[in-house]
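#onboarding

Welcome to the new folks! Below is a worked example of what a typical request in this channel looks like: someone posts a single protein sequence, and someone else replies with the predicted structure as tokens. Don't worry about understanding the tokens yet, we'll cover that in week two.

Example request:
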Amino acid sequence: MAFQLSFIYYNCEVCFSLVGDEKYIMDNQLTGSDLTRAMLERDYQKIWCAVGDESDQQAVSDLNGNDFTAYIVKFQNGYFYCDGGMKWLYAVPIKIRPLTYKEAVFIKIAC
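Example response:
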């Protein structure tokens, strides 16, 4: 649980638009692998993701030791590919950041 709290999962809240061109406005309801696909379609490169082959939920729950994270570089033929060439069925964008003191205290209390 403590490790999972150190991740921020991207939940797009009107992510961006480019100079009024509507095809570049991302849906504000996109999450998980759907958001990763949309980001790749809009030329995001090396998206840091929790990855797995069962579901988005399984991908974000298997973060022990950072074993199941990867930089995703493309989506092709139903698979996400990382920069090392491995393929995955699910890839959930994440952002790693340092814990704050308040979060660390909460983790200690919760665990």
